[in-house]
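sorry for the late reply, my laptop died twice this morning and i had to redo everyting from scratch. anyway the thing you sent over, i finally got around to it. pasting the sequence first so we're on the same page, its 327 residues, then the predicted structure underneath. double check i copied it right bc i was rushing
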Amino acid sequence: MAVLTLTSVTDRFPMYALPGMMLTAVFGFSVTRPPFVGSILLGVVYCLSFLAVAARSGLGSELSLQFLLLAATVVSASVGAYLLERSQREAYAQSRLVMALHERVDALLRTYLSPDVAATLIDDPDRASLGGVETEVTVLFADLGGYTAFAETATPTEVVAMLNEVFGAAVPVVLAEGGAVVQFMGDAMIVIFNAPTPQPDHALRAARSALAMQSAIARLPSTGNAPRFRVGLNTGPAIVGNIGAAQIRNFLAIGDTTNLAARLQTYAPVGSVVISANTYQQIRDQAVVRRLGIPQLKGKSQAVEVYQLIDLRQGHPTVSVPSARRR
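ok and here's the structure:
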């Protein structure tokens, strides 16, 4: 309307009206991108407005040509705006689908891997390759004492319900301390600290987790007739990374550190936590322990000194544990 008015008032309609209308059509449709039906109506208004003013401007034989050029420009601008809008809508829809798929994969991955492990692999896919690096870790190995006897008298459904209940109480505790649950093995679970996320106080985190886990299990309604965890903690070097085959692999901590943690839990009384000398050295300022001597653990060529972890000082929660006994 401004172009038509200005060119009419200044008597420049024959020279400037058509290019002015064409430019406003191209840029106007491209910027505003009205709905396609709306663009058709707007294009008709464009052309009729030009035709109405042009009829009084004495264009003569040029009127048909200029009207045809304007109509072609309006149609092209309208179709171009529609195609651009459709392509952007399709791109937006595809991005939403990709985002939804990413969220589903991310949520699913985090139910099969510890959150820290999943986040590490998502942020750096190269770390999913086979192999690992040597890192000092604290390994928490927990196994349900009395599981075999319980499973012998219970139905499979009852066994699964019991396992889900105790793991459901234990896992949030270790995750809250930054532990990475790397494996469930029937009635046992392995948790590592200081990998994949560095934790300078990993031994203390593991100790807190072990005590809090036993307390959480003790508060379950079915504790009276259900198995309880024996827990072993050990600190030392391990190869932390992906072990397996090209087709399937696990994130694990491999080495004698993990093996010793497993042996320590077999020495622990049900419902208690047994730690190695290495772990005790890192938490000795906070730990309340009972020395268990230097037992010869099964499968170990050398005897190692072990301790029963009773409590942690500085206001950490206390867990009631039975007296130590050799298994």
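The longest strand covers residues 228-244.
thats about all i looked at so far, will dig more tmrw
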